[in-house]
Every structure is written in C-alpha cells, then in structure tokens.
Amino acid sequence: MFRTPARLRALTRHRAIRRTAATVTAAVVLVLSAPTAAHGDPGAPMVRAANSLPVVIGNLQSWLMGILAAVATLFLVLAGVYWATAGGDPAQVERAKGALKNALVGYGLAVLAPVLLQVVRGIVGG
C-alpha cells in the first residue's frame, strides 16, 4: 500500500502525540508514586487522631444507620412504584416483592447497626 506524504505526516504526528502523552503520563505516575516526608513543626505536640475510638465508632454508627435507612427507603419507594405500575403483570409484581424484601432487610440492618457496632467495639477493645 502506497502512502501519500500527507498521510505519512499525519501518522508521524499521531505517533509523536502518543509518545508525548505516554511520557507525560509516566512522569506524573513517577512523581505521584515517590514517597515524600511530611513536614511539620517539630516543637508542636503530635496529635495522632482527631477523635478517640469510641467517638469514631459512634460517628460510624450514625452514618451507617442513616445510609442504610436511606437505601431502604429508596427500595421501599421503588417497590411501591413497581407495584403500582404492574398492571397485573406477574413478573412486575415479583419485582416489586423483591424490592420490598430488600427494603425490609435494609431497615432491619439499620435497626441492628448499633448492635453490630457494639460487637465491633468489643472486638477492638473500645
């Protein structure tokens, strides 16, 4: 196959762009993967954590319960929409029942979240 000079210039340009992009990507990866030292005031007291473990677990419990309740509510709404739009279609009714079961499981997990986190607190010794 004979290539015209314009086609050869375009191929050369595309290869140069690819080579440049690969070089820049490699440089960015190299810079971001290099370990660096954290600089701080040597005279300042060192704070290892913003909160104690019981506070972190309590915050985690609140977030977990909120997220589980929100997802369960979403599934409950979806179940209602599926059921309302089923129009007697057995497959759509089964889909609605599945979404309703998922909502109930989500609400159950949200209620059990304090118990589960209490088990975690007991394991980690908080």
Q: Overview of this structure, please?
A:
The chain is mainly alpha-helical. The chain has two domains: 1-32; 53-124. The protein is built from three helices and no strands. It has helices at 5-33, 53-84, 90-124. Helix 2 (53-84) runs antiparallel to helix 3 (90-124). The chain crosses the membrane at residues 64-84, 104-124. InterPro entries: T4SS_pilin. Residues 1-40 form the signal peptide. This is Conjugal transfer protein TrbC. Keywords: Membrane, Signal, Transmembrane, Transmembrane helix.
Q: What is shown here, in short?
A:
The chain has 126 residues and is mainly alpha-helical. The protein has helices spanning 5-33, 53-84, 90-124.
What order do the helices and strands come in, and which of them pair?
Elements: H1 5-33, H2 53-84, H3 90-124
Tally of domains: 2
Q: Largest beta sheet, briefly?
A: none
> How far is it from the N-terminal to the C-terminal residue, by CA?
74 Å
| Class based on secondary structure composition and strand pairing | mainly alpha
Overall spatial form:
flat
Strand content: under 5%
Mean pLDDT, all residues: 80
Task: Tell me the number of strands.
Answer: 0
The helical percent reads over 70%
Order of helices and strands: HHH
Evaluate the radius of gyration.
29 Å
Question: Which descriptors would you attach to this protein?
Answer:
2 domains, 126 residues, mainly alpha, 3 helices
